[in-house]
Every structure is written in C-alpha cells, then in structure tokens.
Amino acid sequence: MTQAIARGLAALAIWSCTFPASAQETEPLDELRARALDLVNEAREEAGLSTLRADAILDEAAQGHATDMIAEDYYAHVAPDGTTPLDRFLAAGGSLWSLTGENIAMCSGCTPPADMSRVEAFQTGWMQSPDHRENILSEGFDRFGFGIAGEGDEIHAVQTFAGPGADEGGAPLDADGIRSAALEAVNARRAERDLAPLEASPALDTVAMRLRESVASDGALPDDLFGLLPADATGWTSMSVRSASRGGSGSAHSSEEVEAFVEDWASSEAGAPFGGDRAGYLGFAAATQENGRATVVAVFGGRD
Questions:
Q1: What is the pLDDT of residue 271?
Q2: Does the pTM exceed 0.85?
C-alpha cells in the first residue's frame, strides 16, 4: 500500500505601519474572526468561487500559531521547534488527508490590541500578494480559520485553510469509466514488460470494492482474498492486490488521476509486476471521502 499525504500551501508577508493608540479599540476575537471570514468570502465571491465556512479546528491552529510567534519572538511558518502548518492542523484535530494552507502576516509599529481596521489591512495586503491570494482563492478549500495576537509594537495574524482539494483536470468518470481507465493504464504497463493484456472481471471488481472499504478505514487486508469473491465465482487460482491512497484529491476521479496511481505502482513495483504471468484479469475500485482522501484498489487474478 502506498500513501501520499496532503499537499500544503503557505505564504507570509510583513508590513511596517503605525496607528495612533486611540485607534486601537479592543474587539472580541470572535468578531475579528467573523470579519476575517467575511473579507475572504467577499474575495472568493468576486472570483466566482464558493464561500468558506468557519472551522473551530482551523481557528485553534491559527490562534495557537499567532500567539506562539509573539511569545517566542519569531515570524515564520515553521516554529523554532520544527512544528509546521500541517503539524498544527493535525494537533488541533484535523485530517491528514485534507489539503491545507496557511497565510501569516506581521505589522511592525502597530500598537495592540488589534481591531477591525487591522484585520482589513492584513486582508488587503494578502490579496495584493500572489502567494497569499492563491490560498485565499484556492478551489480546493472549503473551511477557514483565523488567529491574531499582539505585544509591544507588533501584531501577528494567521489565516488557515483546509478542504478536500480540487479536481486536477480531466472529465470526471463514473464507476465504469474508472475501471476502463484503470484497465487501459495497467495493460499499457504490462505491454512494456511483454506481459499479455488483462481482461475486466466483474467478480474481481467485487473483491476490489470490498477491499477498498477496508483500506479506506485503515483496516488490515484480510488473509483470505478468495473469501471476498461472489458466491457464484469459481475457478480462481491466484490473486494479488495493489492499493493506494492520497490526500487533497478533490471529489471526482478522472482518467489522469487513475493513470497517476498506476504510474506510482509502476515506479515502486515489488514482486510480480501488475499480477505477472499468472494474472489474466483485473478488478478495480475507487472512492473519495469527504476529507479529500482518494483510495484505489486493483486486484489481479488468474483462473483455470
């Protein structure tokens, strides 16, 4: 089994600015967060994108990082102890399979506490920076978090993002299309190794679907693969399995994505490649969970 973890996007910015102390009125954090989310969603709506929703896990990760940067006197995505944006997201309860992103900003010469005008100024700066703008306008995100902290003459702010990822191009396929794409890709790799092409097998598709459920739940593969065959399936003499998962994959499967999974298998082969000489049939199943985890299973089988 192979696994690719979620992709991450991160960007930072720094501004020097001065506000008179009288302009800094204390604002409740929940109101600052609501304003930050409104500003991000206004930008997304203007770009024709879906809006984000507030997320307590992302709020916790963002606020923890803003506070830590103030307390430990640094300004970076990676903390002095090596903690990364993904580490903070996971520690707060986020899913390893989600696409994540982080924007940070610091205003030097700003007198805390932060108010609405400071949140708005940070948003303006982020939108003027291509890397920050990319996070704010990413199609792969559906959740948002915000944190802000200040001390002395500095204010640090953090935007955090998460989602299932965006589909990576190509027309979305139904179950039959996914199996056809997998069979074509596998047979192309077998031809490179002078192996006979495989045929599609509904019986092995059933095995693949049952295995996919186990793989997606991080369960162990059963010892008896033949026990997963339909009751009327007879004559099978060999079976081997390849499976893989990756995060941030969006909600649909395309032929390009199926090809990428097969290519990963081709570059990390162990044992008989794609079933070897004994295999004559292929079963395949794929599914994507809400957190963006895509899981595929291929079953190579031989029969009398």
A1: 59
A2: no
